[in-house]
Amino acid sequence: MDKMLKWIPQLRRKKGSYSLTIGWLYPDLMGTYGDRGNVLVLQKRCIWRNIRTEIVPITQETKASKLANLDLIFGGGAQDREQELVEKDLNRNKASAIRSLIERGAPALFVCGATQLMGMYYEPSEGKKIEGLGIFKIKTIHADANKKRLIGNIAVEVLHPEDIKGERVIGFENHGGRTFLEDGGLPFARVISGFGNNGEDATEGVIFNNAIGTYLHGPLLPKNPKIADNLIKKALELKYQKPISLEPLDDTLANLAKDAIVKRLKLN
Amino acid sequence: MINCILIWTGKLISFMISSFNLGTGATWPGHIALRINPLFIKQMISKSKLKIIIITGTNGKTTTASMLTHILYQNGYKVIQNSSGANLLNGIASTLIMSASIFGNLKGDYGIFEIDENVIPKALMQMNPDFLILLNLFRDQLDRYGEIWSIADRWNTAIKKLSDKTRVILNADDPQIAYLGITCQKQTAYFGLNEKHNHIEGEQYAADSLYCPPCGQKLDYHIQYFSHLGDYSCKVCGFKRPLLKIDQCFYPLVGAYNKYNTLAATSAALEMGLTESLIDKAIQSFTPVFGRQEVIDISGKRVQLFLAKNPTSFNESYETIKKLGANLLCISLNDRVHDAIDVSWIWDVDFEQITQFRHISLTGDRLYDMALRLKYEDCTDLTMYPNPRDAIDEALLNLNDEETLFILPTYTAMLDIREILTKKRIL
Prior knowledge:
The complex is a heterodimer of chains A (268) and B (427). Chain A is of the alpha/beta class.
């Protein structure tokens, strides 16, 4: 498994007083679409601030007991066939461990396929209904394989969590499934341009406690570093049980990259 | 008769487009012909004596098609070939229009068509190829195509419907492609690599189909050349790499990916009845096609283009230029329709040793995304040029004698840069 992480340069692990353990769900199965960039961003933004990080790949072979030590969780998108394998392993071996982490407030980011699996259920266009972990109060329906996929650049405005409310977020979406919030489900954001959860109700994503579920690839965190920092901050606060303020970093490039899309979507 | 009129009209449109400098007019005539007669391709092909070769796969189509054309041409055959930008049905139809005589006849021995992977099912309904070359399936352009598993399924259904004359030439090192060979019920010939050195160390990230096509278990790789290409077997169901009919030949281009392209072209030429020595002799004079390792000389300065259109092609081009001792690098990232409108994939590229280049310049519609990507590799010594012309001018100024400027562009960025470099309009 170490080989899987080869791409993360093993950098100067400076001594710092803080450390975080980041769990990465199924990097071998849920690795489509550059979503691993999110993990790289979390890791680098910690390293640049002298926060030590350990990335723990959670695979089919990982024992559920290992999940209890995680301070932050990330899960990305997957192709249908891989998603099936993940769903089986999650429900069989790891559902309760992940559920209890999220319930005690561990921050998490789930993108696309991972969000669907953390919801109540997923109804694919073919085959039988897939039970999710029920962490998010959402259901996802992929009624018709021929129905248009929701694809393109997307801009949203954060509704929850409160501390980054109003933040404009840019990403790229590509999903066939339509997700709907159920009673008690809170959206992550409001759609400004693009489709979001279902292309109908202008909601995007879902949150529960400190876990964010979203359809935004791009990947999400590089161009939206405030979300990355919010996840890191909350993870540290939960672990060290005190308020944390993170050292600011230079995000000029992120803003330039973001502005290019904002301009293209004619949002200025 | 209707087809004759379509051919005349098509030739006229194309003539007008090119004389008024509106582009090269590559696909419009075909587009119109197919709107009026949806069976245009089928009728034109079936009344001709052309032997048809169809080439598809995510990466390597253009190079393989050009190599095969070169081999056949060197051996005295007349070949009709579509250009790389015209690999949808309208492009094929346009190629036929431009190649046909005014009486509507196609003269030639072979028709070599590279076809976009998603168009294969439709194309196979129009043309029953004599040879079908399946190169590989990498994750690319998910936005248009959905997933590689489902593309393979659709190919399989389409291939099964072909007549028995079709011979399928397949890359045995790609599990998904090899499995198609087993299930498609046609005559097959497999090519692949048997090299003990040259494999990748560890697992490259951009690998997509490491799972056994028949049973879904993780495959065991005895050797992996790049991405998911290698020698593999499944300990659960026994699926393994099929026996190779050919595993070496003369390679005119650098890079492991070009070994596969050359093996594919050589393998097809062998199936057509050419001898090994004739093929080898022909291929030695092959020169790269535009944008694919093409060398362009700009008043004594050397520029080389390495198309980098998806994670696999980027990784392989990047590995190759490092081996060539590259010092100066220019990356151009676009996200237009032919680039699959998205740049998320750059986060799947392995930028090892990126900080060792002497100078890196970035350009393209999404240059800041690339800058941001490299920042997260701790590479911040970059120059950014919103205008590609400036990027190239500056990079050339920085170039010492004996040095080469290596450019890694996405597809449309390659067209732009080539246009700047050759001052000649090609799209």
